[in-house]
Design goal:
Length: about 120
Amino acid sequence: MVVGMIDHLDVDLLFHALADATRRDIITRTMTRDYSVSGLARSYTMSFAAVQKHVAVLERAGLITKHPRGREQLVRGSPTTIRTAHGLLEELEELWRDRIDRMGEILAEPESGEAE
């Protein structure tokens, strides 16, 4: 069970980070190649500081890592954490599918006293 391997605070950080479109876009970009924060900032109409804050949120959630290259910090997406998020969503999907199946079974049962 994936949820058992990650504590609730980390799950909250993960989905909070994924709840923002800019942060999801940063993840998408950094999954295919490394970017400096200034390179990422050139892709958006917001300030460098705002992009840096998005990067910090993603880093706290473990969705990206930063590593030095000269004077720059390069940002790279973390496939491991993306797989964790995928596993968590699959668990939620399974939970809700089971509930829907049980509701369908209950609705299909004849009421007591009703002729079959």
